[in-house]
């Protein structure tokens, strides 16, 4: 593994263990076993290192939702997004920080921009009409908002399974809820 990749791997581990507020260039360098100045050889700024960490997280998330989007399975893509937020909350928080990562490298919008385009194309194919961009953004915002609440455990006091709330959201956007096994048998 190259020194650059090692720093990204260590940065990812520390992010997942301590959150964004609990890491710094110095803590990453210490955990990587390199001098405090070593990260600057590969990343001109702390934000550039965070962008590289975020790129890895986006690629992991893309591996989960990309196939579902390609298969026109919006429900599976949304559930994968929700699952990622639940299981990797610190990475989810980082990849959502466009304010922090903008201009830091990593070509992050290459992935998220493709998701937005894929979402519009999927809705066009499944509904038979071209959705307005605002419709796509509203749907993405709803899924993302639920994922963000779930990642920070804010949905727990409600006692509601977030995937059920996701089903309601998708149904409101024209994606019918899956039939339960019991309902399918009774028909």
From TrEMBL:
InterPro entries with a match to the protein in the record: Homeodomain-like_sf, HTH-type_TetR-like_transc_reg, HTH_TetR, MT1864/Rv1816-like_C, Tet_transcr_reg_TetR-rel_C_sf
DNA-binding region(s) in UniProt: 24-43
Pfam families found in the cross-reference section: TetR_C_33 (PF13305), TetR_N (PF00440)
Keyword Transcription regulation: yes
Keyword annotations from UniProtKB, A to Z: DNA-binding, Transcription, Transcription regulation
Keyword Transport: no
Domain of life of the native organism: Bacteria
Segments forming domain HTH tetR-type: 1-61
Protein name: TetR/AcrR family transcriptional regulator
Species: Nocardioides humi
